[in-house]
Amino acid sequence: MSEERKTPFLQLVFDDFILLLFIGVAVYAISYLIWGLIELAWLPPIPPEIKQALLGR
Amino acid sequence: MAVAVEGGEKWFRTCDVTGFKVDLRAEKIARLNAVMAVVSLLIAVIAALLLVLTRWQLFHVLPVDWYYRVLTLHGLDALVFWIIFFELAALTFTSTAFLNTRMSSPFAGWAGTVLAIVGWLLVNYTILTGNADVLMTSYAPLKAHPLFYLGMILFAVGALVIVTTFFANLMIWRRENPGQSLPLFVYGLMAAAIIAVITIVSGAIIYIPTFLWSLGIIKDIDPGVYKLIWWGLGHPSQQINVAAHVSVWYLITFLATGGTSINEKISRFAFILYIVAINVASAHHLLVDPAVSPVWKVWNTSYVMYLAVFASMIHAFAVPSAIESAQRRRGFTKGLFEWLKAAPWGNPAFSGMWLSMIIFGFIGGITGVVNGMEQTNIIVHNTLSVPGHFKGAVVGGTALTFMAVTYYLIPLLFRKKIAFYGLAKFVPWIFGIGIAILAVSMYILGAFGVPRRHWDITFSGGPFTYTFNPVTDFFWALFGLGGILAVIGALLWILQVVVSVFFGKPFNGPQDLQIPIAEPPPPAKEEEDKFAAPGTFTLVLLFMVAFIIFVALNYGWLSAMWEVK
Description:
The structure holds 2 protein chains of 2 kinds.
Chain A: H1 9-15, H2 17-41, H3 48-55
Chain B: E1 12-14, E2 21-23, H1 24-55, H2 64-98, H3 106-128, H4 146-176, H5 184-214, H6 223-234, H7 236-257, H8 264-277, H9 294-329, H10 338-341, H11 348-372, H12 374-380, H13 385-412, H14 421-424, H15 427-447, H16 471-503, H17 534-561
Antiparallel strand pairs in B: 1-2
Helix pairs in contact in B: 1-2, 1-3, 1-16, 2-3, 2-4, 2-5, 2-7, 3-4, 4-5, 5-6, 5-7, 5-8, 7-9, 7-11, 7-13, 8-9, 9-11, 9-17, 11-13, 11-15, 11-17, 12-17, 13-15, 15-16
């Protein structure tokens, strides 16, 4: 039997901190940040008369 | 493993207790960051005392402007500076000493530290001079002096530089040790460092335009956008803590009992769940904001966030089971809990860690899930329950863990004997019990509708006044008692650390070790492999029952909120 053992795939993933950094940043960026910003960007602007009434000027 | 480095062995010492090769350049950087952490904690604790004695209306010591100033000071020094400086020290020290490798760039380490300290100085200065009464969140359109934002940016950049050196250190280690996995403790800190990158980048994305806005270069900052991105900094900064303090739990378990995780793969998987899922939990800060959709809110909190909650529950089983397994192998096998009774309670690092696990789980964790659910969040929104939750999670969890592990760092990092060691046995209890009382009383006061961040909840002198249920007087007294007890505990700890580090007797080797380091337990017998931790399993069931009862109660209260009479 060969002395060399192949490293299991999951261990390769678990040990690759650069890959984990990429996954962590990507999930946060897509799920929270970009999606949230898109939702804010799609908000219709506040009608000027309501804005004026709220600000009192 | 030999350490190949320019300058040869002169940069290293071999620790006579652990056998680790310690890079002296990394050690100095870690020491300075640790000192800055303690200075920040001292400021935070003095501020905390003033805040407790102001919110408790019996005393109400601070005038209104100073209340908000001191609240800003407390928030930033406690939640950001104390903890992040401590983590920077931990990242620098562990990625070199624990891995027997060298500091990748001492220059970058020093540059990052100096930037962070300059940032810290600017932020504290602007707050204390009344130029940044904007609270920790500094929500736009509240505007502080530009130096405040510049200070936050410098601190963030400094921290990012040190986090980058941490990853560079890991790369050196990987090159020298191909095919090996990081030790579990360092692996957890790696997770913390990844979360830190996300956190700091979010901070930069929002603080840089806010800084330009404070200078008048940018006309407007959208409050909705500010809040969304700021919470990408605000909440994940506390998630760095969770990953870091859980890592320290594994370390203390190993040092104090010789215990290691009974399934390292599962523990590592739980850290990966933190990396993937914990940061989106920031969304729960926007649960009552109308601008983002319910789909966004529910996906990020009630779905993805639970993966992180699941991870914490894995650690909540893994750490006590590591202790139980080690204790049982030593022969403490009687009944369900002999292993716990025979645990090293006289070791302040162990008692502090155990208390922090209980407070973090039963107070910080359970209340955190309730706060994080869209349905029940409305009960606690903007009430004193919210800081009650993070007193349990961050102060009882992270701060107490860091205080506990410091009893090992004083001899091993600072090479000093622990001053007043007899006192150390009591400090975690005084602080832990104080924080537990404070957190629970704040949570209950919040349930009675007491708002957070409010100078005068009676609105005295105003056109509308409000009288809370008289039972709140009792909980205000508990709040005061818990707060003062916690302040006493923290001050005693700071006194011990300062006297030990600056005026203490030198630590000359294992013979001077006051705090014990456990021998590895004997290997497990075959029949014990079947069910290694029945006591821990019972404790976890108890936790689950408490969890279910608390969630059910909150849904009951939620239904009562909408009752029409």
